[in-house]
Structures are given as C-alpha cells and as structure tokens.
Give the backbone structure.
Amino acid sequence: MTTPLSTYPYSYGFPVGYFFISIAVLLGLYFLRKKTIRLHWFPLFIAHFGVTIVCIALQSAICLDGEAIFDHYPAIDFPDYPEVWYGSIFFMVAYFLLLPPVTNFEGTSETR
C-alpha cells in the first residue's frame, strides 16, 4: 500500500524553492558585480557591498539557526532537509566570492 501524497513526510517544494531563489540571488549578485566593476562608481560599490553582506548574513542564519527560523512553518521540519543546510554553506561561500573588488576610487572623481 502506498502513502497518499497529502501525508507524505518529505516535500520537494521547499528545497527546490530554496535552491531556485538562492541561484537567482547568485546570478543577480554576479551581474551586479560585473556592473560595479564596469562603472567603477563608489556609491554603487557601497550598495553592492551592503546587499552582498545581507545575503551572506541570511545564508549564515539559515546554516546556523535554520531549525529555529523554519520552526514557525508547521509543514517544514528543517532537520529533514540536510541539502538545504549544505546548500546554505555553498551559497554563503559563493556570495563571499562575489563581493566587489576593492579598487582606488580617487582617480575617478570628476574635476570641476
């Protein structure tokens, strides 16, 4: 006898959704990094750095305290999803690699 889908304990929607959103953020940070390097504009550098640090903080929160974060959702039992925990470590490192490069912004200021 098979278990009905409604009572099946493992849902593939949570990990697929998590990886889809994390990959979309990874691509967004990659294109933001390319734009930051190309434009070489200090306010964009600061914004890019801030957004990347927030994304890293969210991934580290999922890695370190994912069970407490997802405890509020009764359908998600976080210890049943080790791939999300390993994925958070991978995306945290990948986001660190997409931090903007530090360059000299003194020569790019406009002269009046």
Notes: The radius of gyration is 19 Å. The chain is about 65% helix and 0% strand. The mean pLDDT is 86.
